[in-house]
UniProtKB/TrEMBL annotation:
The keyword Oxidoreductase applies. This is Glyceraldehyde-3-phosphate dehydrogenase. The keyword Glycoprotein does not apply. CDD domains: GAPDH_I_C, GAPDH_I_N. One of its GO terms (molecular function) is NAD binding. Residues 126-287 form the Glyceraldehyde 3-phosphate dehydrogenase NAD(P) binding domain. Belongs to the glyceraldehyde-3-phosphate dehydrogenase family. Keywords: Oxidoreductase. InterPro entries: GlycerAld/Erythrose_P_DH, GlycerAld_3-P_DH_AS, GlycerAld_3-P_DH_cat, GlycerAld_3-P_DH_NAD(P)-bd, NAD(P)-bd_dom_sf.
Length: 483
């Protein structure tokens, strides 16, 4: 009984420290536009329990639970510092400070964070317009509203849709507020019918009705030099997407689907450095391409890939029929919630647009299954060298925790996880370590991905890159060839 009492007391002590940390993290986000994490586990809009769990998560890297007594003093100091926009891993800072030994914490932090001290006024501000407000559009809105902070960086200004009846505004607001997969919106939603505005946590989202991307005058709403994120999928080539550039107030266009022709297909973390100021139209590729390309790059860099087949087990999407009916696509007319539906995927070929060294080395197919979100890619690879399950898993685990691809690649090794456990994950793909198969130079990897939220997170990273508003990540992460 004494041990139980001590354990309970210890938990309450940690909870008290976490409760003190909650408002400080809120101030950092709101006043400084600083996002914090514990070894990559984000501390955005978190509860005290979330913070305690994040500190326990650190055991995967440090082999011991991160102490709140070590991280809380860091957060206290950060609040008092003149920081600019940044993503700061307080778990890694705490570990580095401990390893350094005795010293002054404020001096240590000033040295570690010198790049972002006194840079608050340097963060650019860019207007964002969502053209379309479906599954991806509404998730993009949620992420943008949550990240708004002081209004620096990227700002959601408007959504453009076709009007569907007199209560269209109410319906749009309701769909943003409630989501059958991702749950309730974290905050408050209200509408201004007179001005056609949805208010989300104090952010005014102008709803513009139009069916012609070339005729909207965004400057009438105070919007200029905007990035338009087209998530309708109606146009996928340069000629179609150039229509947006004819509208007043538009500077650039980002497509949330694989681009055709000469469009650059960007997978953030892999080829985002290819983006230039002269690129006015870009594609964020597909959810599957984003899920598999980072993992394939990591494997190819370490072991070499001579050939591979990608089979995606993909949740059904809105372009399928709920019950059997006519559909212009093969097999997609059959009931989505009752069948596994074999279809093709361009993801394997699309990988080469972001990772040219794998051009011609991959094939792929897809099976649509009766789940609303979270998919899986099975990577069946022939490598240039032999390996083992332990070697591959250890390497990919390190990549997911320590490298520059940490936001793109996740790793889990749990015997109980199923697809719903990955709803809301922000990584592009998560390797299931228990499912890894390796025999000689043959490797099979199973990669989970939230084809809605994980992909939307990747899209936002590209938007921030276009706007030159990506937060500096501190402490700096390692390149994968350094692992």
């Amino acid at each position: 009984m004494t041990d139980l009492t001590a354990t309970h007391r210890n938990f309450n002590e940690r909870l008290a420290l976490a409760e003190e940390m909650v408002p400080l993290l809120g101030r950092l986000h709101r006043e400084r536009n600083v996002v914090t994490s514990i070894y990559g586990r984000l501390l955005e809009n978190v509860t005290a329990i979330d913070i305690v769990k994040s500190h326990r998560f650190a055991r995967r890297i440090t082999e011991q639970e991160m102490s709140l007594a070590a991280t809380l003093p860091i957060v206290r100091e950060l609040v008092e510092m003149d920081l600019g926009t940044a993503s700061i891993d307080i778990g890694r800072l705490a570990t580095r400070f401990r390893e350094q030994g005795a010293g002054d914490l404020r001096t240590f932090l000033e040295e570690e964070l010198a790049e972002v001290i006194g840079t608050a006024a340097e963060t650019p501000e860019t207007d964002v317009v969502l053209y379309g407000f479906g599954r991806i559009g509404r998730l993009l809105a949620r992420i943008l509203v949550a990240r708004e902070g002081r209004g620096l960086g990227v700002r959601l200004r408007a959504v453009v849709v076709r009007k569907n009846g007199d209560i269209d505004l109410e319906k749009r607001a309701s769909l943003l507020r409630r989501d059958s997969v991702h749950g309730q919106f974290d905050g408050t939603i209200s509408i201004d019918r007179e001005k056609n505005i949805i208010w989300a946590n104090g952010t005014p989202i102008q709803v513009i009705y139009s069916s012609d991307p070339a005729t909207v005058d965004y400057t009438e709403y105070g919007i200029d030099d905007a990035v338009v994120v087209d998530n309708t999928g109606r146009w996928r080539d340069r000629a179609g997407l150039e229509q947006h550039l004819k509208s007043k107030g538009v500077a650039r266009v980002l497509l949330t689907a694989p681009g055709k022709g000469d469009l650059k297909n960007i997978v953030y973390g892999i080829n985002h450095s290819d983006i230039t100021d002269g690129d006015r139209i870009l594609s964020a590729a597909s959810c599957t391409t984003n899920a598999i390309t980072p993992v394939l790059k990591a494997v190819n860099d370490r072991f070499g890939v001579s050939f591979g087949h990608v089979e995606t087990v993909h949740s059904f999407t809105n372009d399928q029929n709920l019950i059997d009916n006519f559909h212009k696509g093969e097999r997609r007319g059959r009931a989505a919630t009752l069948n596994m539906v074999l279809t093709e995927t361009g993801a394997a070929k699309a990988v080469a647009k972001a990772l040219p060294e794998l051009g011609g080395k991959l094939t792929g197919n897809a099976i649509r299954v009766p789940t609303p979100d979270v998919s899986m890619a099975v990577l069946n690879l022939t490598l240039d060298k032999e390996t083992t399950v332990d070697e591959v898993n250890t390497y990919l685990r390190d990549v997911s925790l320590k490298s520059v691809l940490r936001q793109q690649i996740g790793y889990i090794k749990s015997p109980e996880v199923v697809s719903t456990d990955f709803v809301g994950t922000t990584q592009a793909g998560i390797v299931d370590g228990l499912a890894t198969i390796a025999q000689g130079n043959h490797l099979v990897l199973y990669v989970w991905y939230d084809n809605e939220f994980g992909y939307s997170s990747q899209v936002i990273r590209i938007v921030e890159e276009i706007a030159h508003a990506r937060p500096i990540v501190l402490p700096r992460r390692r390149d994968i060839d350094e692992l």
